[in-house]
Design brief:
This protein is of the alpha/beta class. Helices cover about 30% and strands about 20% of the residues. It is globular and about 70 Å long. About 5% of the residues have low confidence.
Length: about 575
């Protein structure tokens, strides 16, 4: 894609033009504030709406963005590895505005009470309809991680989200956590529920035996007379980050060469616009955009980065727009192209926060959600305890919600050390709010949430930490396999993200004592990827944590167990 000379100004001014510099909603009634924020003039003749990583959150929630998202090497100081004021300055958003709350952790508790909850499919539906009404033929693209992350999605085998997405009007989607329901369930939904309604695309998922495509690699849809290709890129490391046995017959991977083939094939069939609907993670998307030519835009997900402005990446074919649309239903991306003479001449991009107080709930979607939740409402609403501190999950090393799980596992299971996966999904509670079963399930609901207790040597513990740390901080994005650092309870350590593989973790201690390489320690954990875990008779993690919460009644603010960092400061990815 060859863009006009105005592209720099477009990128620089995108956040301000999207209304991110508004005053507080308290200065105007909800309708006026909402109209101002969501008044996004139509542009061009081809439009895509993009959502990703909603993690099955049908109702509005609070969600705290990270204060630690470290960029190493060439990514230091670059989006998405900016947090707080550094991010706001980079995207031209004023502190103290609704946009500052949407995109950063700054003044989170005060801002969350001022601006209210975010997301919710009924409110998202209203925004989608508003954008489609002003953009004839616009397509809604879903980047995946949609069917997992809540109690109702787990208890209905993903059916709640399938029904909600069909009503929302999703046109095309790709996947990641969807695959943890197993191959048969995914294919059942694609072939039955989605038939004739939603295209599930993934160019990089093939049969393990003969390498045949499992899903459509791409679809070509015509928008206002312009043929547009949407190519799917599912999470390439699904069999590593999640249990392999759930996708035993399928192979994944990044597959640049095949992606280039699909781009060329789609162009050869007449596509004038080519977008990749990706679940790679933003760092991987940025590298991919530099290697594969002919892509106009990569609409990305997986790393939950809410980036209000796109990044333009040069490659052998021109330039590619790379975006990432956050998580939990908080945002809707709006990408408008002006296509003339068979070429993209210009574009506009907005990432719109979904403020539930500023968008009326769509009645049809609200009614569907009410029906979905009705059989489970009493169970979801049961109060287990109350929190005196903010409980959140997000950040490279730990969050207070994860710390709660670690503390519970160690106390209930009598373990010296606890590990909790570096998942990025999960919702936030404010001080004084009830800890309900629904919140606990928001933090733990997977199809393999078995709680474990293992005996591990000090050497093995170090190896585990080194492996996960390399997944997070490898300087080559193609070796970053998703997720944040495993959360650690009971054990202190030092981390040097800039060091080489096997040399990032040091000074591991239990209290004042150094961990001994040959000594065996009792380690609690959950969500094991090994197949034997599903038949070992272990409790689910929520079965371990629920009675602990009920016994405590009031949960004091959690003290985060985070590593001491070396050789990374100063870094605009650390607040």
């Amino acid at each position: 894609m060859n863009l006009s000379k105005r592209e720099f100004l477009q990128v620089l001014g995108a956040a301000g033009a999207a209304g991110m510099a508004l005053g507080t909603p308290a200065q105007a009634d909800a309708a006026t504030a909402g109209n101002a924020l969501y008044d996004v003039p139509a542009f061009g003749n081809v439009s895509f709406l993009h959502m990703t990583d909603c993690h099955a959150q049908l109702r509005p929630i609070h969600f705290r963005e990270p204060n630690v998202n470290i960029g190493i090497g060439a990514m230091k100081g670059q989006r998405p590895h900016l947090v707080g004021e550094a991010l706001l300055k980079s995207v031209n958003v004023r502190p103290g505005t609704p946009g500052a709350h949407a995109f950063t952790y700054l003044d989170f508790e005060q801002a969350a009470r001022r601006y209210g909850r975010v997301g919710g499919f009924a409110h998202l539906s209203t925004l989608v309809q508003r954008m489609k009404a002003s953009r004839k033929g616009a397509l809604l693209l879903d980047g995946g991680d949609t069917w997992q992350g809540s109690a109702t999605s787990l208890w209905t085998n993903g059916q709640d989200m399938v029904d909600a997405c069909k009503l929302l009007g999703v046109d095309v989607m790709t996947g990641h956590w969807e695959f943890t329901y197993g191959m048969e369930r995914v294919q059942e939904i694609v072939e039955k529920d989605f038939a004739g309604k939603v295209d599930f695309v993934a160019q990089n998922v093939k049969t393990a035996d003969f390498g045949d495509p499992v899903f459509k690699p791409y679809v070509i849809r015509e928008i206002n007379g312009v043929p547009c290709a949407i190519i799917g890129q599912a999470f390439p490391y699904t069999p590593i980050a999640n249990p392999r046995y759930m996708v035993a017959d399928w192979s994944f991977g990044i597959q640049d060469d095949n992606l280039q083939k699909m781009v060329d094939e789609a162009r050869g069939k007449g596509a004038k616009v080519v977008v990749v609907l990706s679940h790679n993670g933003m760092d991987v998307d940025l590298k991919m955009a530099s290697r594969v030519r002919g892509i106009d835009a990569i609409l990305g997900g997986h790393t939950h980065d809410g980036m209000p402005v796109p990044t333009l990446v040069e490659n052998a074919g021109g330039k590619t727009i790379v975006t990432n649309a956050g998580s939990n239903g908080k945002f809707l991306g709006v990408l408008d192209f002006d296509v003339q003479g068979g070429q993209v001449r210009d574009f506009r991009y907005r990432l719109l926060p979904v403020f539930a107080n500023l968008l009326p709930a769509d009645k049809a979607m609200d009614a569907l959600i009410t029906r979905i939740r009705a059989p489970y409402e009493a169970k979801l609403a049961e109060v287990l305890a109350r929190t005196d501190g903010t409980l959140y999950r997000r950040g490279n090393f730990n969050g207070t919600g994860d710390q709660l799980l670690l503390d519970a596992m160690m106390e209930v299971q009598g373990a010296q050390i606890a590990f909790s996966p570096g998942f990025r999904w999960g919702t936030t509670l404010l001080p004084g709010q009830d800890i309900t079963r629904e919140w606990l399930m928001d933090m733990t609901a997977t199809t393999y949430s078995y709680a474990t207790v293992s005996e591990m040597t000090g050497a093995t513990i170090k190896t585990v930490l080194e492996d996960v740390c390399d997944n997070l901080f490898n300087p080559d994005p193609y070796y970053q396999q998703g997720g944040d650092m495993v959360r650690v309870g009971g054990l202190s350590y030092t981390c040097d993200p800039t060091a080489g593989m096997g040399r990032r973790i040091d000074n591991l201690r239990l209290g004042d004592a150094l961990l001994e390489a040959d000594r065996v320690y009792k380690v609690a954990g959950w969500a094991p990827v090994a197949e034997e875990a599903k038949s070992a008779g272990n409790k689910q993690i929520w079965e371990v944590v629920e009675p602990w919460l009920q016994s405590k009644k009031v949960i004091a603010p959690r003290k985060l167990n985070e590593p001491a960092l070396k050789n990374v400061l100063p870094n605009p990815g650390i607040a």
